[in-house]
Amino acid sequence: MFLVLGLACQRDQAEPQAKPKAEAEAKTEAEAKPTAQPTAEALPPSARTTPPQREPRTPLAPTMNAHFAHAAQLEQAVIDGDLEAVALHAEWLVNELPKQEMPEAWQPQLERMQAAAAQAAKAQTLAEAGPAAARVVETCGACHQSIGKGPTLPDPPPVPEGDDTAKRMLRHQWAASRMREAMISGSDERWKLGAGAVSVAPPEPCPIPDAEILDADTLALREKIYEIGAKALAAAPSDRTALYGEYLTTCAGCHVGGC
């Protein structure tokens, strides 16, 4: 009996020591488990962090395409001798171009462009419209140069060959397009390509129906276009805008005069 009581007492004394050991093991196991982090949804609204949102940027490609289209049509209107169309496209560049959507770095050249377009819009003669249209194109290139970006030009089509009137006119137009591309992109190669196409006069003057009824000054423009082309081919970049304006005006004078 004393043996049984003694064993019971020993068991009672051992049990209190086992309980702290079990608690310690449970605590160690709990510490080993990673603490669960609350999800954003579980947090109160005041404790949630919202990532910063960027303002959507206005895509500039459509605006630049419209800008280019009106500048090119302004140039073509000068070539056609159409002062009404000159004013139409120039006024779009002054009044409709969404300048406020464009980056701050572009604004100085845009102001120069709009000043030139305003002069074209109020031009009373082709001699005024041609140089103004050329300055509009020049500001495009100046802007591209200032920001270090610009258009990637596709390969040009072949130079139109032939000596009849239609082929010569196509060649003159081709040359104007290449020189315009050069001014927009700053490409010396493209400028020389355009100017070179009209730098040497053909052996015979351009055949014009009823040429005998045209005045001498108008007929002289047939040859002047090649004189300008030769000057343009050798011109320094700083002289190109003035020569391009003269080229446009010469084309217009011939067309209006009956060529």
Automatic annotation (TrEMBL):
Organism, scientific name: Enhygromyxa salina
Domain of life: Bacteria
SUPFAM superfamilies: Cytochromes (SSF47175)
Source lineage: Bacteria, Pseudomonadati, Myxococcota, Polyangia, Nannocystales
Protein name: Cytochrome c domain-containing protein
Region (Disordered): 1-61
Entry GO MF terms: electron transfer activity; heme binding; iron ion binding
Feature: compositional bias, Basic and acidic residues: 12-32
A single BP term in Gene Ontology: electron transport chain
InterPro entries, A to Z: Cyt_c/b562
